[in-house]
Specification:
This is ATX10 protein. One of its GO terms (cellular component) is cytosol. InterPro entries: Ataxin-10/CTR86_families. It is a single chain. The protein has 99 residues and is mainly alpha-helical. It has one domain. The protein is 77% helix and 0% strand.
């Protein structure tokens, strides 16, 4: 259960970063950070591949109920990464072109 707790802490930290990129005052600074967008994209890609290559916390399962899926760490992690990528691309042509 320690792994689940670590995953949830990571998701919470990612949520904070998503909130920061939702704030127009912080957004431009975060959009300009070298490597942030690339790291988010690479992490999403690797997370997706990890779930396909072996049965692990990132493995997609269709047997989950909606409630289990919503609270599943992999679903939250991926959705936060997608939100972060979207925020970093918001009104930023250079970042949009990278994606």
């Amino acid at each position: 259960n320690v792994h689940l707790q670590e995953a949830l802490v990571t998701i919470r930290l990612l949520d904070v970063l998503c909130e920061m990129t939702s704030n127009n005052g912080q957004l431009e600074h975060l959009q300009a950070l070298p490597g942030l967008l690339e790291t988010a994209i690479d992490t999403l890609r690797l997370t997706h591949l990890a779930g396909k290559q072996a049965v692990n916390v990132f493995t997609a399962t269709h047997a989950m109920t909606e409630q289990e899926e919503i609270s599943h760490p992999a679903v939250g992690f991926k959705s936060h990464l997608i939100r972060l990528i979207g925020n970093l691309c918001y009104k930023n042509k250079e970042n949009q072109d990278k994606v």
